[in-house]
Amino acid sequence: MKKDVKSKRDQKQDEAWKKIPPKQGEPLTKKVGKKEWHWCEHHMAYTIHKPADCCLGKDQAIKANMQAKAAIKEEDDDSTNYVKALLASINAANDDNDK
């Protein structure tokens, strides 16, 4: 049995407007039929949810926060290693001077 590809094609055509971003100065919300649609910068499409309620946006924010914390920790680790190496060099120089 073949899939009904005509209905999928029709659905894509009916929903094509959702992917067209609002032009500069246009409102980010529009009413189509009985529903209110909001432009979601995270989905890059008109959606029923408001951008502030977007789970994708929240996930991206959490991921970005985790990456920033990891970068700071890595930077701190590098600084700590530098200080340890510097102290080791100073101690070695002092040991050489004591001899």
Q: What is the SS-derived class?
A: alpha+beta
Count of spatially separate domains = 1
Calculate Rg over CA atoms. Answer: 28 Å
Assign an overall shape. Answer: elongated
Largest sheet: 3 strands, antiparallel
Mean pLDDT: 81
First-to-last CA distance: 91 Å
Would you report the number of β strands?
Answer: 3
- Uncertain segments of ≥5 residues (pLDDT<50)? none
The H-and-E topology, N to C, reads as: HEEEH
The strands making up the biggest β-sheet line up spatially as 1-2-3
Strand content: 5-15%
Given the structure, what is the number of helices? Answer: 2
Helix share bin: 40-55%
Summarize it.
The protein is α+β, with helices and mostly antiparallel strands. It has helices at 5-14, 55-98; strands spanning 29-32, 35-40, 45-47.
Attribute tags:
99 residues; alpha+beta; three-stranded antiparallel beta sheet; 13% strand; elongated
Structure in words:
With 99 residues, this protein is of the alpha+beta class. It has one domain. 55% of the residues lie in helices and 13% in strands. It has two helices and three strands; from the N terminus they run αβββα. A three-stranded antiparallel beta sheet has the order 1-2-3, with no helix packed on it. The longest helix has 44 residues, at 55-98. The relative contact order is 0.07.
